[in-house]
Amino acid sequence: MKILETLQQRHRQRAKSIAVLIDPDKVDDSAKLKYLINVASENCVDFFFVGGSLITTSNMAEVIQSIKEDVNIPVVLFPGSSQQIDPSADAILFLSLISGRNPDLLIGQHVQAAPILKNSRLEILPTGYMLVSSGRTTSVAYISNTTPIPEDKYSLAACTALAGEMLGLRLIYLDAGSGAEREINARMISTVRKSVSVPLIVGGGINTSQKAQAALEAGADMIVIGNSLEKNPDLLTEISEKVYDWNQNVEAKK
Ligand code: 1GP
After folding, report:
1. C-alpha closest to that of 175 among 194, 160, 195, 197
2. N or C: which end of the chain has fewer CB within 10 A?
């Protein structure tokens, strides 16, 4: 089954997913990367996201290859720009940065990427990407040259997601930015959740199992964990247990 169909089906079933984000720029040790890949596999992680807002190295292909060599978990590109397209991945989040007003990230990069993607086998996942403020300026806010939605402007976020859905975007990704000081708050997640019927991805600053649980309860269909695993890959066990427990509960109620 295609990734988008899987996510839509899980959304209907109220089942949750977990993705591990690997920023190729932050992989300086291949043994550590292998360890993280194995921990992810042992904990039945659903997806790897690969990408970053600024990539200064050229090891994206190596990261994808390392994953593919060891495990059977789909790799989804999470590109900061149209330069971050690697055909060896399985899918790409085709992100339109709908919280911002930078035309290049709303449509410009997409025009450049479209012919390349057309000739690849990557599954295209049209995604409304929404940055939400989270304390200090994140790399993604700075690099994208956009203003994140203030974290207490719930209806602004809800209307933005709704417009994205009406434009035909199939997923909404609420992101506080990698390593965010504050994760997306529960009220923001639940307000956006209620405004759209497409699957909702939530990430940025989720660095404890309690925060992961809160995001799931508020309505995230998928949580994305990156930064905190660079320091402590074993945290993934704790966080994925929350997702597992949630899914077991859903199964039990069927
Ligand atoms: C960032 O949502 C992702 O774009 C994940 O955030 O790296 O803070 O986990 P973290």
Report:
1. 160
2. C
18 ligand 1 Cβ < 6 A: no
- Specify the residue with its C-alpha closest to ligand 1, atom 6: 204
Q: What are phi and psi of 204, to 5 degrees?
A: 100, 110
Give per-residue pLDDT as tens, 87-113: 999 999 999 999 999 999 999 999 999
205 lines ligand 1 (CB under 6 A): yes
Is 20 near ligand 1, meaning CB less than 6 Å away?
A: no
Q: Which fold has domain 3-244?
A: TIM Barrel (3.20.20)
Q: In this predicted model, what pLDDT tens digit does every residue of 160-194 receive, in sequence order?
A: 999 999 999 999 999 999 999 999 999 999 999 99
Tell me which residue has its CA closest to atom 5 in ligand 1.
Answer: 204
Structure-token pair, residue 195: 């405004």
What 3 state SS string does the chain have? CCHHHHHHHHHHHCCCEEEEEECHHHCCCHHHHHHHHHHHHHCCCCEEEECCCCCCCCCHHHHHHHHHHHCCCCEEECCCCCCCCCCCCCEEEEEEECCCCCHHHHHHHHHHHHHHHHCCCCEEEEEEEEEECCCCCCHHHHHHCCCCECCCCHHHHHHHHHHHHHCCCCEEEEECCCCCCCCCCHHHHHHHHHHCCCCEEEECCCCCHHHHHHHHHHCCCEEEECHHHHHCCCHHHHHHHHHHHHHHHHHHHC
Task: Please report where in the chains the tokens 């506080």 appear, as a residue.
Answer: 176
Q: Where are the domains of the chain?
A: 3-244
